[in-house]
Specification:
globular, alpha/beta, 10 strands, single chain, disordered C terminus, 2 domains
């Protein structure tokens, strides 16, 4: 007989019913979502001792009847609400940025992909950030339904991020043929808003610009578009077209992505100059973080080919002075984590390192493509973060509303 690990009582089920019909009432529905999310969080808390668990289905044998019933009610409520919840506390910035209510761990471990994304939450739900993307390219956009499905499976105590492009789609004025800044920003904002509405907590936007003349997207144009996208997202929240984020800043975080191989104002810019410009532009645009990632995944170039640990520390310090987070990516290995985390980066991204010991993003196994996340590899990555960035004692903070409790008008 399997051991019962996570339990609820009949009184817990009845508490949901007393709120009303969770399949009909909006308030009762969100209450059911929150209670179900707490069951998922309890599964994630005990999961590190259950090494065979790779999904919620694997954990079901460890739930009593009432806990399983509450999970079912959560899914029924989400089907009725037709609206994705978000992280129960929203995305709290790291202590390095000077945030008033920083998260408990400074450095987060981002795991990219869309297959097996329940595994990171089962390994370290409050240390990881699940990134929904396809592995074929640097920033392979996911679909709205993929984001929502992952949110349903990981609950509301794991952060979800996604990206909408490697480079913004440029709209031109039909008369002048020049970049239409407003229209370009509006198109990017629509993509960002769709991702947020599907359940993402953080959205990344890439700003690789491959025009050799650098006429369309130099730094000043990037900043203009960033400001307009930031304004559009904030207005959607203000007008209640989008659920209000649950973080204490009242904003959904936006993260820009730049690449050391792709100059901003000139093709001749050096990697350190590109990163410094990226930090300045991101802060000026009102975004919350910048990610430096390698653009071409098939050349063998990795993050350390462009930036040393001392470079990373300098860039992280510059970002934190401006109140934004500094994220890094680019085939970073487990052995590099400790020194990079100690340089005070806020987040490190992993694709291949969570899938194959070789660090490859995808391989072919017995004639089949394999890009699935492997739990032992994720456990090894998270262990290095825990070693390099010990947890700080949580400070008392204001109570937050139930996940997804914000309303659309």
């Amino acid at each position: 007989m399997p051991e019962t690990i996570v339990t609820r009582t009949e009184a817990d089920v009845e508490a949901i019913r007393r709120k009303g019909n969770h399949k009909d009432s909006r308030s009762a529905g969100w209450f059911a979502v929150q209670r179900g999310s707490e069951v998922i969080r309890d599964i994630q808390r005990v999961s590190p001792r259950q090494e065979t668990w790779l999904s919620l289905e694997d954990a079901e044998a460890g739930l009593n009847e009432q806990a399983r019933q509450i999970l079912k009610m959560r899914l029924e409520a989400l089907a009725r609400l037709k609206q994705a919840p978000h992280h129960a506390e929203g995305f709290r910035m790291s202590r390095y940025t000077g945030a008033e209510q920083p998260r408990a761990v400074a450095a987060l471990c981002l795991i990219s992909g869309h297959l097996g994304q329940e595994i990171p939450g089962l390994v370290g739900y409050d240390r990881v950030l699940v990134d929904v993307e396809h592995m074929e390219q640097a920033l392979g956009p996911a679909t709205v339904d993929e984001i929502f499905e992952i949110r349903k499976r990981v609950g509301e105590y794991v952060h979800i991020s996604t990206n909408v492009s490697e480079t913004p789609q440029i709209v031109r004025d039909l008369k002048t043929k020049r970049v239409d800044t407003r229209a370009s920003a509006a198109l990017t904002a629509l993509k960002v808003l769709a991702a947020l509405d599907a359940g993402a907590d953080v959205v990344k936007v890439g700003f690789a610009h491959l025009d050799c003349y650098k006429r369309d997207l130099p730094r000043d144009e990037v900043v203009k578009q960033m400001k307009l996208v930031r304004q559009s997202v904030d207005q959607a929240v203000k007008k209640r077209a989008l659920i209000m984020p649950l973080n204490l800043t009242g904003r959904y975080p936006l993260v820009s992505v730049f690449f050391p191989e792709v100059g901003i104002d000139s093709n001749g810019e050096r990697p350190l100059e590109i990163a410094q410009k990226a930090i300045d532009a991101t802060a000026e645009g009102g975004w919350q973080g910048v990610l430096m990632d390698t653009f071409e995944k098939h050349t063998g170039k990795t993050y350390k080919d462009f930036y040393s640990v001392s470079d990373t520390a300098e860039l992280a310090r510059g970002a934190h002075e401006k109140g934004i987070e500094f994220w890094i990516a680019g085939s970073i290995t487990r052995d590099e984590i400790f020194d990079l985390v100690r340089s005070e980066v806020d987040l490190i991204c992993f694709g291949g390192a969570a899938r194959h010991a070789t660090g490859e993003r995808t391989t072919v196994q017995q004639g089949r493509r394999d890009e699935s996340i492997k739990r032992p590899l994720v456990e090894g990555l998270v262990a290095e973060f825990e070693r390099a960035d010990p947890r700080k004692v949580e400070v008392a903070r204001p109570a937050v509303r139930a996940a997804g409790a914000g309303k659309k008008s």
